[in-house]
Every structure is written in structure tokens, then in C-alpha cells.
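Give me the fold.
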Amino acid sequence: MRRKDKQVFDKEILHGVINNAIVCRVGMVKDDRPYVIPLNFGFDGNYIFFHSATSGQKVDILKKNNYVCIEFEQDIEIIEDEKPCGWGAGYLTVVIHGMAELINDLNEKRYGLSQIVNHYKTSEEQYQFTDEELKTVLVYKVSMAEIIGKRSD
């Protein structure tokens, strides 16, 4: 990172940004071109989980190259100035680089889907996914090989 003074190292802050994010943006590489999509996700402190239909562009890309970059953000604001070139932005972002691993084990898949549901739900009730439901969806987990936080006030 060029601006080391803006880098965030505190794990609690980094995990807080992830936990408070509504969506994440997952970047992949398709035939030497970037491909970025917003996704719902779950986070257990070690892995990012996301799900997919059993076929589609995302699935095809990840079969060929499962290296991903995931972005999360909060506290986004535009900071105005009298001169347009003096404008700036305030933000707190987290970027993760890692490998998206397709989960095949039904119990691990169930766990990953539960993490996604738990990220968004407001009740304490735990949904129990059936084996049949699990067979209709793909679940990926992303190891956090690198995690970088940046803050600009």
C-alpha cells in the first residue's frame, strides 16, 4: 500500500467492517479480464462464504481460476472543497485476497450456508438445511491469504 498512514492493521476493526457490510464485491479473472459482482456472504472469523446456483458465469470462472479479491466497505462519504480538485472521500475498506474453494462435504456446506443466513437474519431461530436443499446450491469458502484495511477521513 502506497499510503501506509492510511493502512488499518487492527483485526477487530477489519472484522468489524466485514461483519457490518451488507454485500461484498468479489473480483475474479475471466479470460484475462476483470469480472466483479456484488454478493451476499457469511463470515466466521476465518473464512468468507458465498453461494451460487449450480451453473453460470461465476461457476465457470472459478473452475478455471479460483483466485479472488473481495472488497468490503463502510463509512463512505464525499468530502467537498471549494475547488473540485480539493474534493476527497472518506471511507473504511477491507480487501481480501484468497482462493475460493468449492465445498463438497454436506456438513461443511450446511455450516457455510448457515454463516450466510446468520449474517443477515434478525431472529435467533436457526434454520436447518436439508440434504436435498444443499444439493441444489454451490457454496464456496474463501481463505484469507491477505487482508488489507484502509481508512481515509
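The longest strand covers residues 88-102.
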